[in-house]
Amino acid sequence: MYESLKKWINLPAQIKPFIRRNGTGTKLYGDAVDIKCYAEGKVTTVTDNKGAEVVSNKQLYINGSVPIAELDCIIFENSEHSIKSINTFYRNGKPDIKVVYL
Question: How far, in Å, CA of 98 to CA of 78, rounded?
């Protein structure tokens, strides 16, 4: 299933990597990095990095080699989105596809 998704990973998006928080706790990000993704809009419940269940209404499938973390910010369709969770699928011991839940 996921091998066929790689052919569809062609929509533009950007990742703004998290750098640190400033003195007031606001997240500071680095320069945006262009990536390609496949988008799916469905409502699903995922577990965030704090163990809480949250609702995701959009999922982006990206190449497994793209560095991304839950504190990063995604720009998709000209809107900034916080990442709720990331799931990685492996093939032969290496990340093949990452699902980013927005």
Answer: 21
The pair of structure tokens assigned to 81 is 């989105």
Measure Cα distances from 5 to 24, 46, 58, 60, 77 in Å. 41, 21, 16, 11, 20
Interatomic CA distance for residues 47 and 56, integer angstroms: 10
Helix (H, G, I), strand (E, B) or coil at 14: strand
- For residue range 28-73, what is the model confidence (pLDDT) as tens digits? 999 999 999 999 999 999 998 889 999 999 999 999 999 999 999 9
Q: What is the DSSP string of 37-94?
A: EEEE---EEEE-TTS-EEEES-EEEEETTS---TTSEEEETTEEEE--EEEEEEETTE
Q: What is the largest CA-CA distance in the chain?
A: 45
